[in-house]
Amino acid sequence: MMSSRAERLAQNFADGVDAVVVMNASEPFLDTTYWYLTGSTSGTFEGARAVVTSDGSLHTFVSILEEETARSSSGEVHVYNTDSERKQQMQDVLKGCRKIGVNFSSTAYGSVEWMKSFLEPDVSIVDATKIIADTIAIKDEKEIELIEKACRISSTVANELPDMIHEGATERDVASEMGIRMLRLGGTGLAFDTIAAFGAHSSEPHYSPADYALKKGDAALFDFGSKYERYCSDLTRTIFLGEPDPVLKRAYEVVRLAQLAGLSEMKDGADASAPDLAARKVIEESEFKGRFIHSFGHGIGMNIHEAIYVSPKSQQKLRAGNVVSAEPGVYIPGVGGIRIEDTVLITEDGYRLLTDYDHSYTVV
């Protein structure tokens, strides 16, 4: 029988950690680890807490506002009416714990101070970021299924992009149309703000859509993703309205070959740096040396960026069950940029693309 997510987290406890506490405050200090552990797909859970003890038990602490949703999810549910009740309930569950882990990367300072107010003075609070990251990095079958659904939605939109663009279309207009389309296809939200970058703007990797209107010869770069029940997809497709500057056509071919080179290094047990280095070699040996200005990929799950770094300096190993992006790019200021990106599942013997769209050089 497969271990629960809380049990898998407990198996990663190290250095004498007795429990891990996940603490939600109010927006934007909500930790997706809470939804990962409980399996809840709805509910705000502001102020909620989750505790995983060393035996793999999961306890959740919620206000009456969230009680019904919480009881349909995993964990022993503790309902509080006042802050004093919540403190007492957590104090009881944490009794005997001397070292407690907290997700420092997503926890508000005030929440840590709140917990200190009812713990014994000799209890130490330590950073559980790595414990959590190592656990969520390996997706279970349910998670992969949800990511696949998110990827099918974004892939459908990617294949529809040639029909969405025309001369005079603005970046904001197309980005809005893409978002509406993903929701109508069953998405439960956007994974992140859609990037629609036309012409010279496409050389800016994190560009925000504006009122620039597409014209003949422009590159049209789209970086976007859907959410499905909290899980994300990530995809970038670059197409052209009319034949572009020849340098962009050449850049597209180099980026496509770079992605294939990186993908060929993706498998269980591989150095996480290997795909980046293979892709980077293709670009560095071309006329676009120095134009690949970010890493090859990152982890994807409930968050669009999770702590698997497919970068040249990564010290991690890829493992079966990791879901990562594969996104080399070439950026030429004042001219335009090319990026090709897929969401990828690492398997025992290689990889599987979860996104599916036309990767060939496409002119509309």
Task: Give a verbal description of the structure.
- The chain has helices spanning 5-11, 32-38, 67-71, 83-93, 109-116, 129-136, 141-164, 171-184, 246-263, 274-284, and strands spanning 19-23, 49-53, 58-63, 76-80, 99-102, 124-127, 189-190, 195-198, 218-224, 226-228, 231-232, 235-241, 297-299, 306-310, 323-326, 329-332, 336-339, 342-347, 350-353.
- It is α+β, with helices and mostly antiparallel strands and 364 residues long.
- It folds into two domains: 5-136, Creatine Amidinohydrolase, Chain A, domain 1 (3-Layer(aba) Sandwich), CATH 3.40.350.10; 141-353, Creatine Amidinohydrolase.
- Strand 16 and strand 17 form a beta hairpin.
- Helix 7 (141-164) packs across helix 8 (171-184).
- The chain is elongated, with a radius of gyration of 23 Å.
- It starts with a helix and ends in an 11-residue tail after the last strand.
- The mean pLDDT is 97.
Features:
19 strands; three-stranded antiparallel sheet; alpha+beta; 364 residues; 10 helices; elongated; six-stranded mixed sheet; Creatine Amidinohydrolase
Brief summary:
By secondary structure, the protein is of the alpha+beta class.
With helices defined by DSSP (H or I, 4 residues minimum), what is the helix count? 10
Query: How many strands?
Result: 19
Enumerate the strands of the largest sheet in spatial order, edge to edge or round the barrel. 4-3-2-1-5-6
Largest sheet: 6 strands, mixed
Q: Low-confidence stretches at least 5 residues in length (pLDDT < 50)?
A: none
Assign the structural class, choosing from mainly alpha, mainly beta, alpha/beta, alpha+beta, or little secondary structure. alpha+beta
